[in-house]
Structure formats: structure tokens, C-alpha cells
Amino acid sequence: MKKVQSYQQFQPDERIALSSLKAQGLSMRAMARMLNRSPSTISRELARNAPSGQYRCTFAQQRCVRRRLQCRPVAKLARCSALFGRVRAWLARKWSPQQIALHLARHFPHDRAQRVSHETIYNAIYAQPRGELRRELIACLRHARAKRMPRTRGEDRRGKIPDMLSVHVRPPEVADRLFPGHWEGDLIKGKANASAVGTLVERSSRLLILVHLPSPKPASAAHVLQAFTDKLRSVAAPMRRTMTYDQGSEMARHKELSANTGIAVYFCDPHSPWQRGTNENTNGLVRQYLPKGTDLSGYSQAQLDTIADEINHRPRKTLNAHSPLEVYRDLLAKHHPAPAIIQ
């Protein structure tokens, strides 16, 4: 049995066929069968576009186009609106779309009808006007490009880290948290991003290690490589398996870190902090001791070790009220027992 189409907008060729069938005096159901349409669809089309009883395809198409235009909401920056006039005047004074949007948001905080985003202004410049008005508005912009260039131009604007291993190829045992030795890493920044402290968290036990980074440029790849290498070498070799990190440029020398410590480094997807959620949650605990806006360059490694020790002695609900240090010691003894002394 042939399937009848549900109600959809009539196409121009269908209106031509319907006009011919209507002129032949066919019934509603006969026309519906021939056009593979529902009889109710044919009835609705004739009622809308044949008020005098005579159906003409050209007249029906014109009415359809007019109805579609009338049902669309009026653009906030329509050329006839007062808001468009004000935006146009500010553009003539060399204001950027971002500056205009901020100005409107400041002076009309509770009136959304008088506010527009910078993207709406760009659309009003590049997408809506034609001819001389379009050239006039584009000339007001700083670069005055004929076409708007995408901000990223199809590529990530941040520096690329060579030879990255994605978190998606990380061994499954890391996600299961069944075996220790898998870490997550990050930096917490100080006042004006002028200082930083490295954080390393073991996934199974939630053990925290804080890493002092020297000034200036604490987040440089060289400083992070040296500081992480020194700190990870203090960890027992069997407990150094993998580390999951974000795509920060400070890990550009991750291959050297792997060679120095034997730890494989995997990188999360951009803007995906949940892929290293243990570290993100622990950073929140660290912020109790190192609040945002604090100059972190004044903390020595000994002070950071004291802070980490306090956090590692806290009981955790996820560890059944045990502390990370207790769990870490048990895991180390269970999976890597000390060798027996032969007498």
C-alpha cells in the first residue's frame, strides 16, 4: 500500500498539478490520491488559497510567500527601528560592535528590547543590508573586511602540543581505579596569573602532591618539566604509571617528562575538565589554603608539603571515611609489597 505523505508545505510544481486537477473537476480524494497527499491537506490548501472557489497556482504561491514573511518576528535591528539608527550612529563614530553591546547593556540593564549582542550587530552589518548601506557599515569597522572572518579560522588558536596521546586511548584500568599509580595533573594560578602551583592527584587514593614552581614565568614548559620531574621521582617507581592532563602549553615537553619519570602522559579534550574530575575537586580543597587572588610565589615547597599533608590526612566519604594517605599506603603495600630479607 502506497504511503500517503503527512502535511508538508506545498511545492510550486505541486500547486501547478493541483490547479490542473481542480480545473478538471476531480474530487478531493481523487486529487489526494494522485498527488500522494492526505485529503485534509488538499482541503486545507484549497481553503487557504482559493477563497473564490477558483484555484490558481501563481496566486496560491504568492499568498504562501506573504504569509511566511508576515509570521516571522521582526528583527531587533531592523533598518526601520530606532535601535538600528543608534547603532548606526555609534558605528559612524568608530565604535566597535563589542563596545556598542557593552554600552547598551550598561545603560539598559533591565530592558532587553534595547540591548543587542555584538553578534547581532555583526549580522546586521554583514547579513541584512545590501548595496550602499552595507558598504557604509563595513567601512566603519576597524578592519573593514568585505566578509567576516571566523575568529578561529577553523583551527585552535592555542599552541599545539606535539605528539599528544588522547585520553581516549588511555588504558581502561585507569578509568576503573582498580590499580594505583595513575595521576591527574593541573596548575592553579595566583594573582594576575603571575604565580602558579602544580597539583598532582593519584586517582585511586586521592593522594595530593603540591609542586612549587619558580618565578618568573612559573607556567613555562621548562619550569614545569623540572619541578614535576623532581617531585614525581620522589614517588615509588611502581606508583608512576600514567598522568592525565589538560592541553595547557606548560606540558609541551611531556615526552621529556615521560623519559625522566617513566610516566605516560595523556591529554584531555579541550574544555573538558570532567575528564580529570578528581584533580578539579581536589583543587577546590587546595583553594581553602591558597585562595584565588593570592600571590603563590611566596609559598616554599616545605609550606606546600605541609598543606598537602593536612589535606591527605582528612577522612573522605568516597574512601569510606579513610584518609588518602591511609589508602595510598595500603595500596602500595598490597600491590607492591616490600621484598623479603634473605638471611
Written account of the structure:
The protein has 343 residues and is of the alpha/beta class. The chain has 14 helices and 5 strands. A hairpin with a 5-residue loop joins strand 2 and strand 3. The chain starts with 11 loop residues before the first helix and ends in an 8-residue tail after the last helix.
Layout of secondary structure:
Layout: H1 12-23, H2 28-35, H3 39-49, H4 57-71, H5 82-92, H6 97-107, H7 118-126, H8 132-139, H9 172-176, E1 182-189, E2 196-202, E3 208-212, H10 221-233, E4 242-245, H11 254-261, E5 264-267, H12 277-286, H13 301-312, H14 324-335
Parallel strand pairs: 1-4, 4-5
Antiparallel strand pairs: 1-2, 2-3
Helix pairs in contact: 1-4, 2-3, 6-7, 10-11
In round numbers, the mean pLDDT is: 85
Number of helices: 14
Major sheet: 5 strands, mixed
Largest beta sheet: strand ordering = 3-2-1-4-5
Radius of gyration: 33 Å
Q: Estimate the global geometry from the Cα principal axes.
A: elongated
- Straight-line distance between termini: 90 Å
Question: Could you please say which CATH topology of the largest domain applies here?
Answer: Nucleotidyltransferase, domain 5
Number of domains: 3
What proportion strand?
Answer: 5-15%
Pick out the low-confidence regions. 339-343
* Name of the CATH first level of the largest domain: Alpha Beta
**Element order, helices and strands?**
HHHHHHHHHEEEHEHEHHH
CATH homologous superfamily designation of the largest domain:
Ribonuclease H-like superfamily/Ribonuclease H
